[in-house]
Specification:
Zn(2+) binds at residues 143, 146, 156, 159. With 572 residues, this protein is of the alpha/beta class. The chain has 20 helices and 16 strands. Helix content is 47%, strand content 13%.
Length: 572
């Protein structure tokens, strides 16, 4: 049986993540990891806080603190947030982890030993006012490819191109805004040209890569790879292990990419005290590694990371799937902390429970194109889909069993004409499984809604509350078929709304947790006859009728309350 390493892009910890970050990587990965576990697969689900690089150092400088003080607060806060959103990480690490730093340094030394690392003088922008070289986000300017005026020294957020600071037009220091001068400094580079042919062959022959990822990456590599600097003139980060590189650190993207491996290593050290067990995953050709990222991270995961693995000469498994989402917009605009555009994940929880957000974001997941989050759509999804379609069906069925069957699930010998309904539910359930297997998360939610809507239609058509008085056996059959659909919903909701699914499992009188009920053993089973429905409670609640009229007020109040709960360095 294949093993799976599921990863989500490591969030920068210079501020609280927003809803786009949540669905673009972390939540999507969690839904998939939960699904795999429900299919009985061996899974390691890892990610962590990306603490290094210029965004962190810039934010820390602005706040007048050491970067570690900032990242300690944000990392602890993010861990709390992921717990509240029920993100089921096996290990949520951090790039300041000693295991990670040691792993990165050893990996880079390995590349140097293999002849892929060389050093040379490089001319870089230097701020005479701040007395520092300006790598990456310390320098801003106009992108030479698309003309975007706020491109950074390492990448343009508009067109996605990787950049070198000297390529920017009209460069300016991100700290003080002054025009830099150019000075020479020595840096260490990885020679990507030496893996180009192998990398291109792998990309072209790979049958599991998302089309957008594959086309983008093949085009990039076919144009020719160039050596890329792996060091920076920064004090904050993983120390560069090369002779003569004292005072320099590893470029954050090489650092963070290797975190997927180091987090796995750290997991097995913590879990079993075995520092070598990670190799039975990352060096096993049967392991499938799956990466959940935003589209701006495609070049790093589809080109840079496999290039690193190839250059190591160790038997690392190359990416099996890379699920890259488009952008989630907020009411037609990009999320922006500085302009207060959007909703951040702690603010969202002041408005509605985590399960509501998990479902709504899965429904809005930007899989094929940028998707617009609107409060109108959020309101519709919660009130119509969660409450009316799913919650109402569950409540109708369980209330009937409680009131007309003394709370005891019936066990008819056969379902008669209602067997057709059960078969439709079964087919729809396994179609949901197929969609999740293929990481079609949004489409999987459609299948779940189909079952709930079919269930409500079945109740309206058969009217078991009448049948139980007129023809009790037929009423029992109709109700048993509906109970099968309710139990199926408990299974299918588990990856999406884990708390609600477990509450439904308990209401059905089933022991243990729905998250332990492996689908291949449980999904086709009817609810056992004699199971006791001991309580019936609403699975979901509607948002208030005046929610949309008051949404601006509600959001501002949520921001205020969330801000008060944040650690001190995150309250601006």
């Amino acid at each position: 049986m294949a093993k799976y390493v599921v990863t989500s892009a490591w969030p920068y910890v210079n501020h609280v993540p927003h809803l786009g970050t949540l669905i673009g990587s972390v939540l999507s990965a969690d839904i998939y990891a939960r699904y795999l576990r429900l299919r009985g697969r061996q899974v390691v689900f890892v990610s962590g806080s990306d603490e290094h690089g210029t965004p962190i150092e810039l934010e820390a400088r602005k706040k007048g603190v050491h970067p570690r003080e900032l990242t300690d607060q944000v990392h602890e806060f993010d861990v709390k947030m992921w717990r509240e959103y029920r993100i089921s990480f096996d290990n949520y690490s951090r790039t300041e982890s000693p295991v990670h730093k040691e792993f990165v340094m050893e990996f880079m030394k390995r590349l140097e030993e293999n002849g892929y690392i060389f050093s040379q003088e490089e001319v870089l922008p230097y701020c005479e006012r701040d007395k520092i070289f300006l790598p990456d986000r310390f320098v801003e300017g106009t992108c030479p490819y698309c003309g975007y005026e706020k491109a950074r020294g390492d990448q343009c957020d508009e067109c996605g191109r990787l950049l070198h600071p000297t390529e920017l037009k009209n460069p300016r220091c991100a700290l003080c805004g002054s025009k830099p001068v150019y000075k020479s400094t020595r840096h260490w580079f990885i020679d990507l040209r030496r893996v180009q042919d192998r990398l291109l062959k792998w990309l072209e022959s790979h049958g599991e890569l998302q089309d957008s990822v594959k086309k983008y990456s093949i085009n990039w590599v076919a144009q020719g790879l160039k050596p890329r600097s792996v060091t920076r003139d920064l004090s904050w980060g993983v120390p560069a292990p090369f002779k003569g590189a004292e005072g320099k650190t590893i470029y954050v993207w090489f650092d963070a990419l290797l975190g997927y491996v180091s987090a796995t290593k750290e997991l097995f050290i913590m879990r079993r005290g075995d520092p070598e067990e990670w190799k039975s995953w990352w060096w096993d050709s049967g392991t499938r590694t799956v990466y959940f990222i935003g589209k701006d991270n495609i070049p790093f995961h589809a080109i840079i990371l496999p290039a690193l693995f190839l250059a190591s000469h160790d038997p690392y498994v190359l990416p099996w799937r890379i699920s890259a989402t488009e952008y989630l917009m907020y009411e037609g605009q990009q999320f922006s902390k500085s302009r207060r555009i959007g909703v951040w994940i702690d603010e969202a929880l002041e408005i509605a429970p985590a399960d509501y957000w998990r479902w709504a974001l899965a429904r809005m997941r930007p899989e094929a194109r940028d998707t617009n989050f609107t409060w109108k759509e959020f309101y519709r999804i919660v009130n119509t889909e969660l409450n009316d379609d799913i919650g109402n069906f569950v409540n109708r069925v369980l209330s009937l069993v409680r009131s007309r069957m003394s709370g005891v699930a019936p066990e008819p010998e056969d379902l008669g004409e209602h067997q057709g309904f059960v078969e439709r539910v079964r087919r729809a359930a396994w179609a949901v499984a197929e969609d999740l297997e293929a990481i079609r998360i949004k489409r999987a939610t459609e299948g779940i809604l189909e079952i709930a809507r079919e269930g409500n239609a079945h109740l309206n058509r058969t009217q078991p509350w009448k049948l139980l008085s007129q023809d009790r056996e037929e009423g029992v059959r109709a109700l048993s078929a509906a109970l099968y659909a309710v139990k199926t919903l408990a299974h299918l909701l588990a990856p999406f709304t884990p708390d609600a699914a477990d509450r439904l499992w308990s209401m059905l009188g089933l022991a243990g947790s729905v998250h332990e009920a492996v689908w291949d053993e449980w999904l086709d089973r009817p609810l056992p006859g004699g199971a006791r429905i001991v309580r019936v409670e609403p699975l979901f609640q509607k948002l208030p009728d005046d929610f949309l009229e008051r949404v601006d007020e509600i959001v501002e109040d949520a921001r205020r309350r969330a801000r008060e709960k944040r650690p001190p360095l995150l309250r601006d």
